[in-house]
Design brief:
By secondary structure, the protein is of the alpha/beta class. The chain has 23 helices and 20 strands. A four-stranded mixed sheet has the order 2-3-1-4. It has a four-stranded mixed sheet with strand order 18-17-20-19, with helices on one face. Helix 14 crosses helix 18, helix 15 (411-434) runs antiparallel to helix 16 and helix 21 packs antiparallel against helix 23 (628-654).
C-alpha cells in the first residue's frame, strides 16, 4: 500500500524492455513506474522488487534517487492510516498483512510463497519489531562539519592513541550521512525552532528572537509554538568541551582550558561522541578540542563478554570497592589496561592486587618502627653505602621509564614498573639487605635517610594510581600540613659512579636467587645450613660477597663461603652464572642418587602426559570438531608440560 515503484536491475535482460513503463499496484488500484536500479538483485526471487520509500531504509535511498512518491501508511501506533484503502484503515500491521495475502489469493495474484531468511530489527528494550516510519526531523550537515576534524587528524594536530583507531575515525567520518538531531523524548534541550500559523519554522536563540523573525515575515505579531522535539543526546554532549566553560562568553576558563590536552574514552563511542565533539569544537571555536585522544580498552567479564544487566554478568565496582578498597581496584584496572586488548576482569584478579596494597602498608610500618627519617630531600654528596647507591640508581631508572610511559599512555607499563620496583626491588631485596644496617652505628644514619627518601619518592609515583593509601601515608609519615597531590616530581639523576655498586648488588641478587631456586628444586630445608664454594676471577665481586656475608647467612642459611678454582666435587650441585661458578656440597643434605631417580621418573610421567596431549592436537578429526577453547586449553597444557620437562632437566644438570 506504500509502494511507489517496482525496481529491476538495469542489466537484467528479462525486464530491460519494461524499464520506464508502468504496472498496476493491486488492491490500491494505481499505476506505479518500473525503474532500473542496481539495488534490485536479479538472482533473488523474481529479480523484481517493490520499492516502499517511506517504510524501508534501502527503499528510501532508491526513492530519493528516482524522485519517487513517499507514501506514509502508518500512524504512530503502527496502524494503517488514511493513505490506504478504507477496508485496511485502523488495522495493525500484522493483521493488514494477513488480509493482503488473502485478497491477493482471491484475485489469483499470489503465485507462490518462499521461506527466506530476513534481517528483522528488534528494539533491545521493547523486544518488538522496529518499523521504519517516515517523519519530519531536523538534520545537521555532518559532511560539512566533518571536514576540519578529518584535516586535524591527518595533519597530526589531533592524535589517536593507539594510532590504529584513526582508521575507525576516518571510516565513519569520510562516509558520513546527514545527522538526524531531533528526538521524540521527554528530556533534553528543546529544539530552538518555533512555528507560525502556517507551520513555517523560525530557528532562533530565544522566543524573543523568533518573534522578531516572525514579525518580519508576516508583517504582524503572530502566535508561535516551539517544536516539541529535543536535541539528540550526542548533539548536546558534543557541545561539552566549550559550553561548560561559559561559552559564548570569552571567559578565563574558556581561554585556559580550551582545547584540552587529552580525552580519555572507549572505542565504542568514537563516532557517537568523540567525532561529534570535534565537529562542534572545530565549527564554533575554530580549533579542534583535543590534542590527544587516548582510547582505552573496554572492561569485559572474565569470559570476554560485554557486561550487560540482561545477561547478568555485571561486576559491580561498588562491591569490589567494599571488599578490596578503591586503590586496589584502581591499580588492578591500570595494570590490565593493555592497549588494543579488552580487559577480562574477574574478582580473583582484583583480589591478587590486594596483597600489593598490604605490601606497601607493611613496608611503611617496618620503616616507621625503625625510626626512619621521612624527609623529601637528600644530600647527594653524603652517600657512601653500596646498598644506598644501588637503590638510588634503580629508582632513577624506574622514574625515567615511568615518565616515558606516561607520555606514551602506556599505563599498564607504568603499573608494572612501579609494582615490580616496590615489591621486588625495594621490599624483597633492599629492605632485607638493610635490616642489619639499622643495628650498625656506621650505617644506620645513612640507611634511615635513604630508605625513607626512596619510599617517599615511590609514594609519589604510586599516587596517581593509588591516591588514598599514598595520601594517608604521606600525612602520617611525612607532613600533616600538606597534601601529597600538591608535591613536585623532581626528576633525579645520580652520579655515574653509583653504577659500580648497582652492578655488584645485582650480581649478589642473581647469586642469591639461584641458590634459593636450588634449595626449592632439591627440597633442601632451611633448617639445613649449606656451604657454598665460589669460583670467580673477579676480586671486586669477592669483596662484595664477603661484605654481604651476614645477609647470605640470614637469608640463605649459609654455613660458610669459600673461594676455590676449578670447583668439582661428587655429591654436589653446581650453578653456572655469567662470570661465576657456585658449588654446593650435598653430602648429608640430599641423597643425590635417589633425587636423580625421582626426577627421571617425573620426566617419564610428563612425557606420557605430553604424548596424550599431542595425540589430541595431531588428530585432524578432533581439531575439526572440538570447540576453540578446548583446543586452546590443550595447547596451553602442551607448553606447560614441555616447560616442566625442561625445568627438571635443568635441575638434573646441576647435580654431580
Amino acid at each position: 500500500m506504500g509502494d511507489s515503484a517496482v525496481a529491476v536491475h538495469p542489466n537484467d535482460l528479462k525486464y530491460k524492455n519494461l524499464i520506464g513503463k508502468f504496472c498496476k499496484l493491486p488492491l490500491v488500484d494505481k499505476n506505479i513506474p518500473i525503474i532500473g536500479d542496481e539495488y534490485a538483485d536479479p538472482e533473488k526471487g523474481s529479480g523484481a522488487v517493490k520499492i516502499t520509500p517511506a517504510h524501508d531504509f534501502n527503499d528510501f535511498e532508491v526513492g530519493k534517487r528516482h524522485k519517487l512518491e513517499f507514501v506514509n501508511i502508518f500512524d504512530q501506533f503502527a496502524k494503517v492510516n488514511e493513505n490506504a484503502p478504507k477496508r485496511f484503515q485502523g488495522l495493525g500491521r500484522f493483521e493488514a498483512r494477513k488480509l493482503i495475502l488473502e485478497e491477493l489469493s482471491q484475485l489469483d495474484l499470489l503465485i507462490k510463497e518462499e521461506k527466506q531468511e530476513m534481517v528483522v530489527p528488534y528494539g533491545d528494550r521493547s523486544g518488538v519489531v522496529i518499523e521504519p516510519w517516515l517523519t519530519d526531523q531536523w538534520f545537521c550537515n555532518a559532511k560539512k562539519l566533518s571536514i576540519d576534524p578529518i584535516k586535524s587528524v591527518k595533519e597530526n594536530i589531533t592524535n589517536f592513541v593507539p594510532k590504529n583507531w584513526e582508521n575507525t575515525f576516518f571510516n565513519w567520518m569520510e562516509n558520513i550521512q546527514p545527522w538526524c538531531i531531533s528526538r521524540q523524548l521527554w528530556w533534553g534541550h528543546q529544539i530552538p525552532a518555533w512555528y507560525g500559523p502556517d507551520n513555517k519554522s523560525f530557528v532562533a536563540l530565544s522566543i524573543e528572537d523568533a518573534k522578531l523573525l516572525a514579525n518580519k515575515h508576516y508583517g504582524k505579531d503572530v502566535e508561535l509554538n516551539q517544536d516539541e522535539d529535543v536535541l539528540d543526546t550526542w548533539f548536546s554532549s558534543a557541545l561539552w568541551t566549550f559550553s561548560t566553560l561559559d561559552w559564548p562568553n570569552k571567559t578565563y576558563e574558556l581561554e585556559r582550558f580550551y582545547p584540552g590536552n587529552v580525552l580519555v574514552t572507549g572505542f565504542d563511542i568514537i563516532f557517537f561522541w568523540v567525532a561529534r565533539m570535534m565537529m562542534m569544537g572545530s565549527h564554533f571555536m575554530n580549533e579542534t578540542p583535543f590534542k590527544d585522544i587516548y582510547i582505552h580498552p573496554l572492561i569485559r567479564d572474565e569470559k570476554g563478554q560485554k557486561m550487560s544487566k540482561s545477561k547478568g554478568n555485571i561486576i559491580d565496582p561498588l562491591v569490589l570497592l567494599d571488599k578490596y578498597g578503591a586503590d586496589t581496584l584502581r591499580f588492578s584496572l591500570t595494570a590490565l589496561l593493555n592497549p588494543g586488548r579488552d580487559v577480562k576482569l574477574a574478582e580473583e584478579r582484583v583480589k591478587g592486587y590486594r596483597s600489593f596494597t598490604n605490601k606497601i602498608w607493611n613496608a611503611a610500618n617496618f620503616l616507621n618502627l625503625n625510626n626512619v627519617s621521612f624527609a623529601d630531600k637528600i644530600d647527594k654528596e653524603k652517600i657512601n653505602l653500596d646498598s644506598s647507591k644501588w637503590i638510588l640508581k634503580e629508582f632513577q631508572e624506574v622514574q625515567k621509564k615511568y615518565f616515558e610511559n606516561i607520555e606514551k599512555y602506556q599505563f599498564h607499563e607504568v603499573a608494572s614498573l612501579i609494582y615490580h620496583f616496590t615489591w621486588n626491588t625495594y621490599c624483597d631485596w633492599y629492605i632485607e639487605f638493610i635490616k642489619s644496617d639499622f643495628r650498625d652505628p656506621k650505617k644506620t644514619e645513612e640507611t634511615k635517610k635513604i630508605s625513607g627518601w626512596v619510599f617517599i619518592q615511590t609514594l609519589k609515583l604510586l599516587h596517581p594510581i593509588m591516591p588514598f593509601i599514598t595520601e594517608k601515608l604521606w600525612f602520617s609519615l611525612v607532613d600533616k600540613e600538606t597534601f601529597l597531590i600538591s608535591q613536585n616530581y623532581e626528576k633525579v639523576n645520580f652520579d655515574q659512579s653509583f653504577n659500580e655498586s648497582k652492578k655488584y648488588i645485582l650480581k649478589i641478587i642473581e647469586l642469591m636467587t639461584a641458590l634459593r631456586n636450588l634449595r626449592a628444586d632439591l627440597n633442601i630445608s632451611y633448617k639445613n645450613e649449606i656451604d657454598i664454594i665460589i669460583d670467580t676471577k673477579n676480586d671486586n665481586l669477592k669483596n662484595f660477597i664477603t661484605n654481604y656475608k651476614k645477609e647470605f647467612e640470614r637469608l640463605l642459611k649459609t654455613k660458610s663461603i669459600s673461594y676455590e678454582e676449578n670447583t668439582s666435587q661428587k655429591n654436589s650441585a653446581f650453578i653456572i652464572l655469567s662470570d661465576i661458578t657456585i658449588l654446593v656440597p650435598l653430602e648429608g643434605i640430599v641423597d643425590t642418587e635417589k633425587e636423580i631417580i625421582k626426577l627421571e621418573n617425573k620426566i617419564i610421567t610428563h612425557n606420557e602426559k605430553l604424548k596424550s596431549v599431542l595425540d589430541k592436537l595431531n588428530n585432524k578429526a578432533f581439531i575439526e570438531k572440538a570447540p576453540d577453547d578446548v583446543i586452546e586449553n590443550f595447547k596451553i597444557q602442551e607448553q606447560q608440560i614441555k616447560s616442566s620437562i625442561e625445568k627438571i632437566n635443568e635441575i638434573m644438570n646441576t647435580i654431580n
